[in-house]
Amino acid sequence: MYVVSFQSSHFRNLKEMEFHPDPGMNVICGENAQGKTNLLEAMYLFSGMRSFRGAKDHEYLAFGQKECRLSMSFFDGERTQDAELRIGVKKKAFLNRVPLESVAGLSGSIYTVVFSPEHISLVKSAPQIRRRFMDTAIAQIKPDYGHFLSQYERVLNQRNILLKDLRQYAALRDTMDIWDQQLAKLGTILTIYRQDYLHKLQKFSKTIYEGISRRQEDLSLSYISTVFSEEWIGEKYDDARINQYFEALCAAREQDVRQGFTSVGVHRDDLEMKINGLSVKNFASQGQQRSCALTLKLAEARLLEKINGQQPVIFLDDVMSELDQNRQEYILNYIGQCQVFITCCDVLNTLRMRKGKIFMLADGKICTEQTL
Fold it and tell me: Which DSSP symbol is given to 101?
C-alpha cells in the first residue's frame, strides 16, 4: 500500500501543489513553519482518522478561505484508488468519486501509522498515554476490543459513582458485588487482549531496536497489571482469572470508598519499557527515549502489516532530532519495506540516504525534488 500522488488546495499554509512520492522512502526537508508537518497531516487525514495534532476542522483552512480540498491516489495492493476530501462548513469524503456518509468511511481503505514529537510522551509521561497507545493499536486489528473497552468504561463510571454515594447511603454496599463482577469479567478480557498484543509487539520491537542501536542495546516490553502477576496473564479466559480480578476489587473496596474512585484494574495498568534491564523512563537518554517511542510505532506498523496483510504508510514527523548518525542511517535505509514519509529541518541528515526521494519544501510548496 502506498500513496501514488497527492494534491492540495487551500489547506493551512500549503500552496496548490501536486506531489508524486516514491513508493519507498521520502524525506521532506525545510526550515520550521514551511508546511512540512501540514503536508503529513493532510495525507494522514485519508486514513479516516482525526488529525494527529488534535486540530479542529476550521483550523485546516488557509487564511481567508471557506473550503480546502485534498485529493489522493493510492495503490491498495490490488488497484489504484482515488480519494478526495472537502473541508469547509461540512466535511465531505469521496472514494472513487462515490460520496461517503462521513470521513470515517475511508477507514480501512488506507492504513497509516504516525510518529510525531508528541509521541515521546509514550516514554516520559503518565501511564494513561501508554494505555491509550495500546487501546488504539489493538482496536485497529481487533474490532471487538473497542466494544469491550467502552463497556468497561461505562461500568467503571457507575462503580465510581456508587463509591461516592456509599458515604451517605451505606445500604447501597450490597450492590457492589454486582458491579465488581461485571468489571472483573470485562477487565480480564481487556488484560488478555493487551498482554497478547504486547507479546506479539515485543518480537518486532526487539528486532527494530537492535537495528537502531546497532545491537548495542536490548529493549524489552512488559505489561504491568494492578491485578495479576505476570505469569497469570495469558490467552486463557477462565473463572480463576475472573475470580482473582473480583477478589482484587473486593480487597481494595474500603480504600476505594475513602478515595472515591477505583484503584485497581486495567484503567490503572501500565506498559513498562527497559533498555538492558533499566527503566527507559527513569534512566534512558533523550536519544534513547526517542528511539524507544519510534520503535513502538514502527513495531505497530509491522504487526499491523502481518495481521491485516497490508503495508501501512508510515509518517515520521521530526524524527531525526536527538538521534546520532548511526540511528539516522537505520531510519533512512532499513525501514523502507513500507512507504515512509520523514520530515527534517537539515538536509545534511539525508547524506546517508541510499534510495528514495528528497523534497525541499519552502513557503508551503515543493521547490526541488531529488531521486536517489
Answer: S
